[in-house]
Design brief:
This protein folds into 2 domains: about 1-375, no CATH class; about 380-525, no CATH class. Strands 1, 2, 3, 4, 5 and 6 form a 6-stranded mixed sheet that branches. It has helices spanning about 1-15, 25-30, 30-40, 50, 60-80, 100-125, 130-140, 140-145, 155-170, 185-200, 205-210, 215-220, 220-245, 255-260, 265-270, 275-280, 285-295, 300-305, 310-325, 340-345, 350-375, 380-390, 425-435, 500-505, 505-515; strands at about 395-400, 420, 440, 460-465, 480-490, 520-525. The chain is built from 25 helices and 6 strands. Helix 9 (about 155-170) packs antiparallel against helix 10. Helices cover about 55% and strands about 5% of the residues. With about 525 residues, the protein is of the alpha/beta class. It is a multi-pass membrane protein.
Length: about 525
Amino acid sequence: MWRRAYLLLVLVRLWFALSPSYLHPDENFQGPEVIAGQIFSYPVRRTWEFTSEWPIRSVFPLWPVYGLPMLLLRWLWSGFSNSGGIDGKEGGHGEIPPIAVFWTLRLLMFVISFVLEDWAIHELVQSPRHRRVAVLLVASSYVTWTFQTHTFSNSVETLVVAWSLVLIERILDTTSQQSSSLLSPAVLGVVAVFGVFNRITFPAFLLIPGLRLIPHFWNRPLMLATLVASALFTVAIAISLDTSFYTPHSIGWSDLLRHPVITPWNNLRYNLSPTNLAEHGLHPWYQHLLVNIPLLVGPAAALLFVQPHLSLRLYSAISGIFVLSIFQHQEARFLQPVIPLILSSVQLPKSPTVMKVWVGSWIAFNVVLGLLMGTYHQGGIVPGQVFLSTQPDATHAIWWKTYMPPIWLLNGKNEVLKTRDVMNIEGSSLLEELGKLATCDTPADRRNNEYLKERNGTYLVAPLSATWLDPYLPNKGLEGLRFREVWRYRQHFNLDDLDWAEDGFLPTIKRVVGRRGLAAWRVTRSC
């Protein structure tokens, strides 16, 4: 029975992986967009993390996670194209459309989640009965369905933390032949450095588990030497790659010795500054514990206080939450690595009645949050970019009240299409911007698809819940602007437009849910 349930949950995970929800801009801008620009020469937008004087993002973990799959896809695509299996008419023979790369990476995240995360839980939980429960809980979590199948550095960190714990357990297992092997400490050295260069928060999750290695290595110094040697070798490779990426000229030994780019150190310095963190939002120290944990695991949070399984997994989760709570900027996704650790460390209620109630609440919680975050959350942004990439007249696109759109999905269109993200500006300022960019209204604009033959066109992309636009949309001359709706995508919630204080709770829900969707208007003006 549990196997069939698990297989069903794997299919649910795959379905959400192939849904175009957009949880946070970082899932594109902190990884895939940068590497896609390197491999496919797509025009991309590098964020401040890559362009500042002291860059804080390492490309070392990006190449194996995103770069190798992209290179493999390019090789396969080229092979099919040369054999006539793929028609590469647009943009040159055999050119890969960015949306194909996007879905390839989503499928990749599903595979490594399904294989590596579940495998790690299987190894970490010793009791067969408890293992089945742990695997099912992790597989039925909406965090596994959504966040873990997106291209977040937090998703990669989750896998690195889990496998670091597996390697620590193997090293500490004195009953196994693996205890005399140097392979586990060698691999742990590589994985630990990879984790640090991926996210500077990674060591927080190994703080307590790592302490258990001290007496073990004291008695087996060769293991410690192997771990240190492999870690130092990996550090040298990581710093070399980062220095090469961020140096405008070909590097030599002098660059590595005199001007190395050490991104984890830059990242740590940046995040130790309250002024820097204030730019991203400050939270109270209890944000993770009292808000983010219940938001991520729901009914399972209560089970932590009812005879939890004391294990290396739980200690890792505790140390991670404790250290991350010290920093004042606390987003829920920062706790992704603790979710499988917590869910594999709880015991289900023993009372049949309580068990039924808990299971029902667990299913309802994850179905609702899964659909919200995995399908509707900013769900129209990726399809919207694909639509704009097909509009031959599009030269300006204004995105209002949405997340920043990933321009690498424009399929080369971004060489002529200027994308502007004006998420938080007032409506009056929006009209001013549109007035500057809107083209003159012509007879072609008033016919079916004749406007596509124009050389220039300005588009406004905004959620249907933005009621401020309502008086202007049917306008035939007011303020000189005219709006023609040319595209609409219904599976889109704009949860960043919740005005509880001004509109009230029910009117806000009615507006955001009842008027869900994202639309694109071609904007012209009377000339």
